[in-house]
Every structure is written in C-alpha cells, then in structure tokens.
Structure prediction request, 225 residues.
Amino acid sequence: MDEENKSNLSFMEKLTGIPSENQPAYKEQVKKEEKEQIIKQKKSKNANSRSWYGGSREDWKINEADLKNQVDNYKTLKITKSYRGIAILTISALLGFSLLLSFFGVITDPTTMFWAIIMYLPIIFFVYKGHRWAIILLMTLWTLDKGYQVIGQSGGQVEIMPIIGWFIFTPFFWRALKVENERKRINKLNRVSQVSNQFCSHCGSKIEINSKFCPHCGKNIKIIS
Ligand SMILES: [Zn+2]
Prediction:
C-alpha cells in the first residue's frame, strides 16, 4: 500500500471511527493488491511454462535439495526415482519404441535397430552402475543419432521431430550426469580431508601430506589415517 493511501485511511479512521480494515478504501486497496499478486503469479508461471517443443528450462535444472537427496540416497532410491534410473528407463523406452517403429518400416529396418540396441545395452548397464563416462557416451550417441536423423535422411530437408525429441529427452540424461558430477565432487572433498588428517604411526604427531619422515620423531612414515 502506498503512503498516500495510508494517510488517507488513518484520516478516514479518525473521521468515521471505523477501523482501517473496514474502510471501503482499504478493502478496495486489498482487492487491488490481490489482483496484482495474481497477475504477478501468472507472469512467473508463463516464464516457467512449456516452450514450443513442450519442454521447459526447468527440465534441465536440479534444485539443491533434490540433488542432495539424489546423492545421499544414491544406492537406495528406486529405479523410477533415481536420475540414473530414469535415464536408463528413458533410453530403454526410446529404443523399444524405435524397434517397434522399425518393424512397421517407419524408421530404418529391424536388423539395424537390433544392432543399435546391442550397442546401447552395455552403455545402459554402466550408466546404472553410476559411471560418468557411460552417461557422457550415452548423450553423445543419442545426440549423434538425432543429428543424423535431422540432416541425414530426407535428402536435404531438415526434420523437426528429432530436434524436438532431443530437447524433450536429453534433460533426463543431463540430470543423471549432474548427480554423478556432484558425487565426484563430494568424493574428491572426502579424499582431500582424509589425506590432510595423517598422523605418524610412531609418535602420533600430525604430519604433512606426502612427507617421508616424521618431523617430530624422525622415523620413516607409515601412514595411519
Ligand atoms: Zn613421529
């Protein structure tokens, strides 16, 4: 509420003896503010809304709590809840669907699809095992595949569907990669804190990383952490 309205209200309050909350001007002001609030919400909703291909920018993001949950419960989350699980379910469904289409002659032929699936299977396995390189390889193959579909098939004509497909499904792989990146970062931090907490096995003094002799007792160092 702006200053002018406020002073108007307190003046009206004195004049009429009706408390501010019940003044018609106040009620109107509240209504106006509520309306503005709704417009604001609608605007921010539009900013997050689906874009031309049906996805949104939010698809590519993981909020901190979500990332922490993914990392903390990495081994216990169900396949449908963990991002690497969702990634392999997504690629499996896509491959299955492509195989089905190939039987109807919509795309390539079943033999080609069969070999494509054979190639993807070990990658899917290692993605589920949590290997970063496997996710990167999966994303690379997937992108090459879509790129080939865009420019390779229809004799100079650019296809739009593979591009849409890429934008819709790549976030599923991207989020799995982000979880692995975070796990890698945390592992590294843990390793650093371990080596900086080394003690001499003879006298128990705290010692520098990678030192060969203890500066306190002068003996050869066997690391205990
Ligand atoms: Zn020592």
The pocket of zinc ion is lined by residues 200, 202-203, 205, 214, 216-217, 219 (CB under 6 Å). The CA atoms of residues 69 and 141 lie 29 Å apart. Residues 57-195 form one domain.
